[in-house]
Structure formats: C-alpha cells, structure tokens
User: What shape does this take?
Amino acid sequence: MILFLIGLISGIISGMGIGGGTILIPALVIFANPDQHIAQSVNLIFFIPTAVIALIVHIRNKRVDFKVAIPIIIFGLLGAYLGSRLAIRLPGIVLKKYFGFFLLVLGVCEIIRKDKQKVSEKKLRQAGQRS
Assistant: This one.
C-alpha cells in the first residue's frame, strides 16, 4: 500500500511539472529501503510514462514553448549522460549525500525566492496605496 501512495503522490507532483523525484527517491529510500542507485533508477523509469502523459496534457493546453524547450532538451540529454556516468561511479552512500545536499539547497533557494517575492508584492501594494 505504501508503494501505491508513493507512486500516486509522485505522479501528481510530476504532472504539475514540479519533479516527482524530489518525493519519490526519499520516500523509496525511507519506506522501501533500496540502495540509492536503485531508488534513482526507479525514479528514472517512473519518469518516462508520467512525463509523456504530462507532456501530452501541457501540449494540448498550449503550455509548451518549443523555442525554449529544444535547447534545454539538447543540453539536458548531454547532462543526463554525464550525470549517469558519474552516478554509476559513485558509491551509494556518497550518491545519497549528494542528493540530500541537492534537496537542501533546493529548499533554501525556494525559501529565499518566496521571501523575495513577498517583499516585491509588498512594495507593489505600498506603491499602489500612494497613488
């Protein structure tokens, strides 16, 4: 049952374009206890069908800018190749620490971004009140 819930929640987040791996990998490691390489491999296999479905929905709703997407895809493929070669060479515990550090940095960046957004909104409201 826990794997069903992990898959469902990760799928919903993936469909929103947020990145289901941020939920799927830690949840697998915590609740199913596979090796880090296995958890990340499961994430990659999980990503393919969920990405295809989400992409179809977003293209139908005209939410994809192909001029922006094409160069990102090309360099993303290069980065995926290089990253997978690196991941294969790293011990599982090191890979787990790198992934944890990545999630920590991502969380801090998100908090900072939200704070800056709130400050900008506050300044806009104050400017609107003065007019």
User: Anything to note?
Assistant: Residues 93-131 form one domain.
